[in-house]
Amino acid sequence: MSTLIYLSSSPYSSTTIKEALDLALVFGTFGQDIRLAVTGEALALLIDNQTPNARQGKHLHKLLDGLEFYDIEQIYIKQDEIPAATSLWSGVTALDSEEWLNMLNQHQYIYRF
């Protein structure tokens, strides 16, 4: 059984992305096969060298390095959504449109945030 946590909300407009990452960690704690997909405004989570202010909340980017301890090693993004001249977290796999659709079809459960 594989589960995909699909992130598309801004990581700084609400606690939605934090809750999604917490859910992924809980699944990972219990040995579930978890993968993350990041699109749209959620891509801000993956940008290196972030310095969110107090109003924006916690620095969620720092949580990414801990995902490997929960065996969460697959983070997918759409190739055509990669921001130009932006350094992204190194643990992502960029997929073209066809690969993206195939990846979505491979998961038994998808939770979208």
From TrEMBL:
Q: Which InterPro entries match?
A: DsrEFH-like (IPR027396), Sulphur_relay_DsrE/F-like (IPR003787), Sulphur_relay_TusC/DsrF (IPR017462)
Provide this UniProt record's keywords sorted from A to Z.
Answer: Transferase
**Recorded GO MF terms:** transferase activity
Q: In which family does this protein belong, per the annotation?
A: Belongs to the DsrF/TusC family.
What's this protein's name?
Sulfur relay (Sulfurtransferase) complex TusC component, DsrF/TusC family
Q: Which organism is it from?
A: Marinomonas fungiae
